[in-house]
Amino acid sequence: MSQNYILYDMDGRIIGTGGCQNKMVQAQARGWPEGTKVIEGYADSKKHKVIDGKIVDKTTAEIKADAQQEPKPIPFEDQPAHITREQWQSILERLDKLEKNNVKNKN
Amino acid sequence: MSELILTRPTRLIHTAEVANEAVHSAGDYYASGSVKVEDDNELVASVTFTSTGNKVYLQFSCSAKWSGAHPDLEFYVKRGGTEIYRTTVILAANSRYSVAFNRSDTPSAGEHLFRVYADIPFFDGNDHYVYNRSLHIHEFKAG
C-alpha cells in the first residue's frame, strides 16, 4: 500500500522525499509552491536531482555549491556558555569586590 | 485506584492476521536540506493521505540553527485550513537545537493535507534555519 515519492521544484531540486499511500503520490505536491512536482521513487537530495522526470546524479560542483548553502558550524567563541544561577551570582559578587577594592585603592 | 489487569496472549500474532490497514503509516516526509525561516510562515513539511476516520498520530522533528539574537521560533500544524497545534521554542543565540513534537488527531474519513509551518513572529533579520525535517503520520484501527 506504500509508495516512495520524491518532491522536486521547477529547477529539479529535490525538496523532500517520503512514503505515502499508492493513490496519493501526486497529492503530495499540495501545499507546496506552484510548479512543485512529484515522481515515484527514492532519492537522496544531497546526491540527486530530477531532470525531465528522471532521477540523475548531481555533478561534484553542484554538490559542493549546495553544501556551501547549508548552515555553517558555529565558531566556538560564538557559542553560548551555560552556567548555573549560583555560578552567575558568584561572578557578580566577585565583580562587586573588585570594584570596591578599586575604589579603596583610588582613595 | 482502579486495577489494571494485563493478560498475556497465548500465542504469537503474525502480521498476516492483522487486518489490512489496521495499523499503518499514512505517510511520511523527510528533507535534509535547510529552510531559512523569517516572519513569513515557511512550509517545512507536509503529508497528504486518505483517512479512514480513525485516530491518527503525528510526529515531527527537525534541527534548528540560530544566529545572532534569540527570537522565538514557532511551529504550527494545519489539517487543511484548520490549525490543530502550535508550540513556541525559545532558543539561545548562536546555537543548534533538536525540536520535536507529537500530536494526535481524529480527522473525518477522506483526504487530508497535514502541513507543518515554521515562523519567527519577531524576526530580527539574522540567519535562522531548520533542517533535517521529518514528519510521520500513522493511523490506528478503531478500538
Features:
heterodimer, A: two-stranded antiparallel ribbon, B: 143 residues, mainly beta, Jelly Rolls, five-stranded antiparallel beta sheet
Explain the overall architecture:
The complex is a heterodimer of chains A (107) and B (143). Chain A is of the alpha+beta class and 107 residues long. Helix content of chain A is 30%, strand content 25%. Chain A has helices at residues 60-69, 85-106, and strands at residues 2-8, 14-21, 37-40, 48-51, 54-57. The longest helix of chain A is centred in the last third of the chain and has 22 residues, at 85-106. Chain A is elongated. The relative contact order of chain A is 0.12. The model of chain A has no long low-confidence stretch (mean pLDDT 90). By secondary structure, chain B is mainly β. The interface between A and B is medium-sized, with 28 and 35 residues.
How much of the sequence lies in strands of chain A comes to 25-35%
Rg of chain B, Cα atoms, Å: 19 Å
**Which structural class should the secondary elements of chain B be placed in?**
mainly beta
Q: Provide the CATH superfamily of chain B.
A: icosahedral virus
Q: Tell me the number of structural domains of chain B.
A: 1
**Anisotropy-based shape of chain A:** elongated
Number of strands of chain A: 5
Q: What's the assembly state of these chains? A: heterodimer
The CATH class of chain B turns out to be Mainly Beta
CATH architecture of chain B: Sandwich
> Quick check: average pLDDT of chain B?
85
**H/E element sequence of chain B:** EEEEEEEEE
* CATH topology annotation of chain B: Jelly Rolls
- For the secondary structure, the number of strands of chain B is 9
pLDDT below 50 for ≥5 consecutive residues: which ranges of chain B?
A: none
Instruction: Report on the biggest sheet of chain B.
Output: 5 strands, antiparallel
Which word captures the global form of chain B?
A: elongated
Count of helical stretches of chain A: 2
Decide which structural class fits the backbone of chain A.
Answer: alpha+beta
Question: Separation of termini of chain B?
Answer: 23 Å
User: How much β-strand is present in the residues of chain B?
Assistant: over 45%
